[in-house]
Amino acid sequence: MYGGGYIYEDTNTNNQNDASVNDAAKLEAFEARIAAGEKIEPSDWMPADYRKQLIRMIEQHAHSEIIGALPEGTWITRAPGFKRKLALMAKVQDEVGHAQLLYSAAETLGKPREDMINDLISGKSKYSNVFNYPAETWADTAVIAWLIDAGAIINQVANSKGSYGPYCRALERICTEESFHLKYGHDNVVFLATGTPTQRAMVQDALNRWWKPIMHFFGPSDKISVHNTIMMRWKLKMASNDDMRQKFLDMYVPKIWDLGLTIPDPELRLDEATGKWNYTEPDWEEFKRVINGDGPCNKERLAVRKMAEERGEWVRKALMKQEERYITPLA
Amino acid sequence: MKSDSTIKSLDPRITRADIPKDENLSINITPLDQWQTYEVFHQAKKGDHHIHVGSLHAPNPEMAFLSAKEQYARRGKCVNIWVVKTADIFTTDFEDEDMYETNNEKMYREAGGYKVMERINKYKKEHKKNPEEAKQ
């Protein structure tokens, strides 16, 4: 899964291209290559800002995968039934694996993984806002796996056609794996929605809780979002936040209504004339407040990440002792 | 008994971990904490070439293999994996790709560089007996 709503910020970029950023001829050749659909590879010349934007994007994406494993992992111990427990563990393992792929893609741009982890825990780098909300019941994990992953796939399929080779290759692998997440999530939601009144109420509650984060998921409205033009020319971003939100609504609102579930937005309806969805504008002040640290779970998420790094440190150190080798006994 | 100074989570595993509530989160892991990188090559079927599928971090080749198996071979078919320390791979820069430019100019190394039919047809045409002459 993945967050589309990026917040612009400085990153610790490897600014090896700073001196040549104003090199008009190189920039022109670079943009021509992108326009022709070529992929940019790590050792190619690139404008410093392209590098910076990419690091910011891919790093946020990686952090989202690794933090996203936490709300879903919440219910592994109490998954209803062995099959669902196995499936949820496999899904969470996938998310952590996706983080590894993405960290590697970001590293090709010159930011070491250690710096990315430091910046995640200090709050300097962000991750998808949705993971700052709690998964209160089992039904929350079903809604996350179905609808957040659905949003992620829309984002990632678009971005896998982007311009940076390593990121595109990572996204292709990620999308292949996530098709299972979507089906798994849908299966869980359908099971609850077609079950007992208690189960239906449970999934409706979860949908009510998650609708706001889902609408936030694609990032601030195009009206207030910055940096889109150059991001799109450089094929870092392949569709605007609002276009992706519309695509998501097109694909999933009918499926939700099909199950007899309601969506907690009285304004939500398809405008037949324009073919676009009308909806209540999400609260972007809340979005900013939560992404900057003031959400229900921000502190816990980062404290857990920090704990994992700190308590795993001795294992990482011990494994580095390569001179200690096991020798097969002679007798 | 849990004290108020540790995190109470919806996830019982996190509550059990006794993680202190820390208002000023920061960490300073240093270079190589996450180990060096390896490149992974994956063979889907016996007889195929190994194909590069990505990289990972590991402290030694054995751990690189374990991670490669989890990361790049936990789905689909795989019969074999190679892991190679990234530092041991020598590669050319894309900036130098012009060194391969003349590849397609050396037609004498290509099957298409040899056009025998033109010559055969010309020969046949010159030596073909005129049917009228043959009757006489």
Report on this structure.
- The complex is a heterodimer of chains A (331) and B (136).
- Chain A has 331 residues and is mainly alpha-helical.
- Chain A has helices spanning 24-35, 48-73, 82-107, 113-122, 138-159, 165-193, 197-217, 228-233, 241-258, 284-291, 298-319, and strands at residues 269-271, 276-278.
- Helix content of chain A is 60%, strand content 2%.
- In chain A, a hairpin with a 4-residue loop joins strand 1 (269-271) and strand 2.
- Chain B has a domain at 1-20 and 34-90: Phenylacetic acid degradation B (Ubiquitin-like (UB roll)).
- A three-stranded antiparallel β-sheet of chain B has the order 2-1-3, covered by helices on one side.
- In chain B, a hairpin with a 7-residue loop joins strand 1 and strand 2.
- The longest helix of chain B has 12 residues, at 61-72.
- Chain B is elongated.
Summarize the structure.
The complex is a heterodimer of chains A (331) and B (136). Chain A has 331 residues and is an all-alpha fold.
Per DSSP, what share of the residues of chain A sits in E-state strands of 2 or more residues? under 5%
The 3D shape of chain B can be described as elongated
Task: Name the shape of chain A in a single word.
Answer: globular
Q: Which two protein chains have the largest interface (Cβ within 8 Å of the partner's Cβ), and how many residues from each?
A: A-B, 44 and 41 residues
CATH topology of chain A: Ferritin
Considering DSSP H and I runs of 4 or more, what fraction of the residues of chain A is helical? 55-70%
Write down the domain tally of chain A. 1
In order across it, which strands form the biggest sheet of chain B? Answer: 2-1-3
Radius of gyration of chain A: 21 Å
Overall average pLDDT of chain B: 89
- Summing up helix and strand content along with how strands pair, one would put the structural category of chain B as alpha+beta
Q: What is the second-level CATH architecture of chain A? A: Up-down Bundle
Query: Looking across the biggest beta sheet of chain A, what order are the strands in?
Result: 1-2
Looking at this structure, what is the CATH superfamily of chain A? Ferritin, core subunit, four-helix bundle
